[in-house]
Amino acid sequence: MASVQSIALTAACLTAGMRDFCTWNSLGVAYDGPDAERSLLVIWGAGCLELHAELVQYAPIVSALADTLYDQLDQAAPGVWHYEVTEALGSAIAEWIVLHDGLPPSLDWVKTCLVRLAGEFMLRGQPQQWPVIRQILLTLSAELPVIVPVAPS
Question: In the prediction, which pLDDT does 129 show?
Fold first, then answer.
């Protein structure tokens, strides 16, 4: 099980990814501010704390996946997980909310997105680890065969 500190860091990175979405996205959406009708908070339609709570509820899943991958693979990271996976997931959730008029994504959608991001990240590592990566990711989503090969080609 992931530590409290690991989950807290993951939650912070999820919300950082949400805010990053608002500063660079092509949809012209801000987090908050003078252009209130196009802000994420207005599109969300609930409070700021509720928006952050929507994101951070996934922190235990993301943190546990990272811990499991690194424990099973016993290898150095092919990059920085929180920048490349966790923040990207926060950004993807924010984009979903904007594109779906303030509705949050389903847990299945979040898991599928997490599996895609984690798979892309981990596949930059050692090919002999791909079968282990695949088995771990299959615990979250069955939509995996096109994401992680069974064996290196």
Answer: 82
